Amino acid sequence: MKRKILPQKFFTRPALQVARDLLGKFLIREFPSPGGVDAPRGRGGLKQIALMITEVEAYDGPRDKASHASRGETRRNAIMFGAGGYFYVYLCYGMYEMLNIVTGAKDYPAAILLRSAIINFPLIRGVDCRRGRTGCVTDNMVLDGPGKLTRFLKIDHSFNKKPADKSTSLWFEDRGVKIPDKMIRRAPRIGVAYAGPIWSKKKYRFFLTKT
DNA sequence: ACGATGATGAAC
DNA sequence: TTCATCATCGTA
Predict the structure, then answer these.
(1) In total, how many domains does chain A have?
(2) Is pTM beyond 0.85 here?
(3) Are the CB atoms for A185 and A203 separated by under 8 Å?
(4) Domain housing A86
């Protein structure tokens, strides 16, 4: 199976396009592997966790009232105003780290929030699919929610502003999974009622559905 | 339905 | 310097 690290070029495109294309791609997290009985699955004493992305949300441009960028550049959201391909990580509700990947060109603030993923790919095998709380496809390893995802992968604000490549120990791969449009659903984003009737209803949430 | 929990940004 | 808010989650 081919494994191609998604280059920066993948992310320097419009947010909605990147969001759709991230479904079925893999988020790879690399950890140092302590020596001992447990043989490292990766190379050179490193162990990798690969999650297939099943749900994302786009935050697109300075006019998007649901986006942190809608009120201009601040220290927190500065990375959103840079070029695509860098992580934007922030603390939400005092205890949950939200993982985003910045998209688009420099000076156009946009990012994709990674909401859900699965770890043993029932979608591919066609077994044991069920829906999680947000309507996204999950399986027994439920990473259904942005806070759960970062907690599982041990991602915190130290990843903020880092590039999505191997130097960060966190990157994306295309592992050859093709997701037909028929398997993708769009819906309003979650938890953005504050954005008002127009922007809170935009179908900027993308997720995989069964069949 | 609600409380935990702390950074953020806007007001003062 | 305060204070309301918040791209959530687990328990009820």
Answers:
(1) 1
(2) yes
(3) no
(4) 4-208
Nucleotides of C under 7 A from a protein CB: 5-10
pLDDT digits (tens, 9 = 90+) for A128-163: 445 555 655 554 566 899 999 999 999 999 999 999
Q: Residues at the strand C interface (CB under 7 A)?
A: A 57, 59, 66-69, 77, 80, 88, 92-96, 98, 100, 111, 113, 145-149, 189-192, 194
CATH number reported for the structural domain that contains residue A120 in this entry? 3.10.300.10
